[in-house]
Amino acid sequence: MSELRQLLRDLEVFAGDLPTFDPAAAPADPAALFTAWLLAAVDAGIPEPHAMTLATVDEDGAPQARVLILKNLLPATGGWQFAAHLASPKGRQLTAVPRAALTFYWQPHARQVRIAGPVVAETPERSAADFLARGRTARAEALLGRQSGPLTDPAERAAALAASRDRLAREPDAVPPEWTLYTLLADRVEFWQGDRDRRHTRLDYRRTDGRWTSQLLWP
Ligand SMILES: Cc1cc2nc3c(=O)[nH]c(=O)nc-3n(C[C@H](O)[C@H](O)[C@H](O)COP(=O)(O)O)c2cc1C
């Protein structure tokens, strides 16, 4: 067996003092349970608890996934929000196939949440408000609108960023029209609580006709 393979086999999972999860006491609304788990991660000082993997597919059905930051959760609609440039690969994929999946993993708690559903683009006003709430550097970068295009010359990036900063200094309210706040309207949310002895607990919520139901799943 190769050294790396052995090293991977020897690494621990689900170690440490894990929280408990009683699915019988779980709320009827998965947004409430998600919020409780997220706040528990924040309280425990877990780094970047709002980082999540966003999975999309392109028009040929090929999946792609990347990490993004959760911007907000709208409990009334079960809406998880994130923002992206419409012309980025993920933006183009969401235009072609407006469905996505999100995965959160809070390692010290051995907790995973999987969320899936259709994605809608919010109004230009809401998208602009999201953009204007970003820090200056993040806005200057996003104004470039060239995310994931080939970068042949790093000097070109520095010059473009400097031009973007100059533009923001002249027009502090500049907003790229392609900046989009997206809302994933969950129709499925699964909570997974890991256990050191592999007695993992899975609670799966499904929404049908606007009503949430939940059931346990085999781990
Ligand atoms: C912790 C973390 C947070 C990130 N947050 C964002 C984000 O909020 N928005 C974003 O466009 N990219 C973010 N990225 C970069 C994306 O993972 C990705 O590289 C980029 O959006 C290009 O993706 P695309 O080519 O699929 O469009 C983040 C990466 C990491 C590791």
UniProtKB/TrEMBL annotation:
Cofactor binding annotation: Binds 1 FMN per subunit.
InterPro entries, A to Z: Pyridox_Oxase, Pyridox_Oxase_N, Pyridoxamine_oxidase_dimer_C, Split_barrel_FMN-bd
Alphabetized GO MF terms: FMN binding; pyridoxamine phosphate oxidase activity
Cofactor: FMN
GO terms under biological process: pyridoxine biosynthetic process
Pfam families assigned to the protein according to its UniProt record, in alphabetical order: PNP_phzG_C, PNPOx_N
Binding site for FMN: R66, V67, L68, I69, L70, K71, K90, Q112, Q147, S148, W192, R202
Domain Pyridoxine 5'-phosphate oxidase dimerisation C-terminal: start-end pairs: 179-219
Protein EC: 1.4.3.5
Protein keywords: Flavoprotein, FMN, Oxidoreductase
Pyridoxamine 5'-phosphate oxidase N-terminal domain boundaries: 40-146
Keyword flag Cell wall biogenesis/degradation: no
Family assignment from sequence similarity: Belongs to the pyridoxamine 5'-phosphate oxidase family.
UniProt name for this protein: Pyridoxal 5'-phosphate synthase
Lineage: Bacteria, Bacillati, Actinomycetota, Actinomycetes, Kitasatosporales
